TrEMBL record:
<dbReference type="GO" id="GO:0008168">
    <property type="term" value="F:methyltransferase activity"/>
</dbReference>
<keyword id="KW-0808">Transferase</keyword>
<comment type="similarity">
    <text>Belongs to the ROX family.</text>
</comment>
<dbReference type="GO" id="GO:0032453">
    <property type="term" value="F:histone H3K4 demethylase activity"/>
</dbReference>
<feature type="domain" description="JmjC">
    <location>
        <begin position="23"/>
        <end position="161"/>
    </location>
</feature>
<keyword id="KW-0804">Transcription</keyword>
<dbReference type="GO" id="GO:0005506">
    <property type="term" value="F:iron ion binding"/>
</dbReference>
<dbReference type="Pfam" id="PF08007">
    <property type="entry name" value="JmjC_2"/>
</dbReference>
<dbReference type="GO" id="GO:0140680">
    <property type="term" value="F:histone H3K36me/H3K36me2 demethylase activity"/>
</dbReference>
<protein>
    <recommendedName>
        <fullName>Bifunctional lysine-specific demethylase and histidyl-hydroxylase</fullName>
        <ecNumber>1.14.11.27</ecNumber>
    </recommendedName>
</protein>
<comment type="function">
    <text>Oxygenase that can act as both a histone lysine demethylase and a ribosomal histidine hydroxylase. Specifically demethylates 'Lys-4' (H3K4me) and 'Lys-36' (H3K36me) of histone H3, thereby playing a central role in histone code.</text>
</comment>
<keyword id="KW-0479">Metal-binding</keyword>
<keyword id="KW-0489">Methyltransferase</keyword>
<keyword id="KW-0539">Nucleus</keyword>
<keyword id="KW-0805">Transcription regulation</keyword>
<keyword id="KW-0560">Oxidoreductase</keyword>
<dbReference type="InterPro" id="IPR003347">
    <property type="entry name" value="JmjC_dom"/>
</dbReference>
Amino acid sequence: AEPLKVWKYFNDGCSIRILRPQKYSKTMWQMLSVLDQFFGCMTGVNSYLTPAGTQGFAPHYDDVDVFVLQTEGAKHWKIHGNLNEETTLSRYSSGNFTQEEVGDPVLEVDLHAGDFLYLPRSFIHQANSFPDQHSFHITVSANFRNTWADFLEKSIPVALQS
């Protein structure tokens, strides 16, 4: 990406997502190695820089458990429950939802630099930066894959070989 174009988009209200920042940080790479062993699953990192007074993404849910670490500025988060039983522990991320579809949040919280938030897989969420300050946060995702479908996908082939 060309830096001048990236900053133009940012100044026009677009968020910047940095995929796999551990590629550029030995400390972050080491942290992920420790978390992989601790959780017993693959972990990953993304970083998000959001201009003041904007929302980076529409309401959505992810197919991984997410740990949010706010490193600069502040963000107002809204966490909604699942829309229905079928989306509980979804194996896929959702598309975008409208505000009408998600309804009232079950939790609203402001994250400031140094704050931490856990978002379980399949929980719809959205976040807005404060009107007077940008936001930079890091998300660590843990790919637990602990549904019955995941269990059966691993165990049936083993059982058939026995």
